[in-house]
């Protein structure tokens, strides 16, 4: 979804509810790097507050940083008329696993983490 799409939802008063799973990361790319034994590189995202972005675009924006607030935030979004975005900050360590992790994936992950440890200890 692009920024302009948010405004389209406002222009046409679309009753859409958008949920952002904000893990601050190109998580899939990070996983692929790790599978291949490569240290993580360039996958961190310096994300803005997407609820604030949504508000600037005319939607209702709700930001969740505490897991205990998810239920209420979703309920609020469903109660609210018009387009609403819920920005849920998630744990980037909750990495999606490959559908069927293989020993080769595990080996790649071990190599990647070893390289990362060696680089960080070299600081
Ligand atoms: C147009 C396009 N460019 C590049 C890719 C390659 N790609 C696959 S997953 C991914 C990262 C997606 O990151 P994000 O949207 O933050 O989701 P996450 O993997 O963290 O769940 C990229 C760049 C793609 N699928 N489509």
Describe this structure in words.
- This protein is an alpha/beta fold.
- The protein is built from five helices and three strands, in the order αβααβαβα.
- It has helices at residues 3-11, 27-35, 50-56, 70-79, 103-121, and strands at 17-22, 60-64, 84-89.
- The chain has a three-stranded parallel sheet with strand order 1-3-2, sandwiched between helices.
- Strand 2 (60-64), helix 4 and strand 3 form a beta-alpha-beta unit.
- It binds thiamine diphosphate.
- Thiamine diphosphate (TPP) is lined by residues 23, 25-29.
- Thiamine diphosphate binds at residues 23, 25-29.
Key structural traits:
123 residues, 3-stranded parallel β-sheet, alpha/beta, binds thiamine diphosphate, 5 helices, 44% helix
The DSSP helix count reads: 5
Helix content: 40-55%
Topology, number of strands: 3
- Largest sheet: spatial strand order: 1-3-2
How many strands, what sense, and barrel or not for the largest sheet?
3 strands, parallel
Low-pLDDT ranges: none
Mean pLDDT: 93
> Helix/strand/pairing class, anyone?
alpha/beta
The helix/strand order is HEHHEHEH
- Rg value: 18 Å
| Separation of the first and last Cα atoms | 39 Å
Shape, principal axes of CA atoms: elongated
Strand content: 5-15%
Could you tell me which ligands this complex binds, including any ions or cofactors? thiamine diphosphate
In short:
By secondary structure, the protein is an alpha/beta fold.
List the helices and strands and how they pair.
Blueprint lengths: L2 H9 L5 E6 L4 H9 L14 H7 L3 E5 L5 H10 L4 E6 L13 H19 L2
Bound molecules: thiamine diphosphate.
């Amino acid at each position: 979804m692009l920024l302009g799409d948010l405004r389209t939802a406002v222009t046409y008063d679309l009753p859409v509810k958008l949920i952002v799973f904000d893990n601050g990361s190109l998580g899939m790319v990070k996983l692929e790097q790790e599978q291949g034994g490569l240290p993580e590189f360039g996958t961190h995202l310096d994300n803005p507050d997407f609820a604030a972005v949504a508000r600037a675009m005319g939607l209702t924006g709700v930001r969740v940083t505490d897991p205990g607030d998810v239920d209420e935030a979703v309920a609020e979004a469903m109660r609210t008329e018009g387009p609403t975005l819920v920005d849920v900050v998630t744990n980037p360590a909750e990495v999606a696993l490959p559908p069927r992790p293989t020993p080769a994936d595990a080996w790649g992950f071990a190599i990647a983490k070893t390289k990362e440890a060696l680089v960080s200890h070299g600081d």
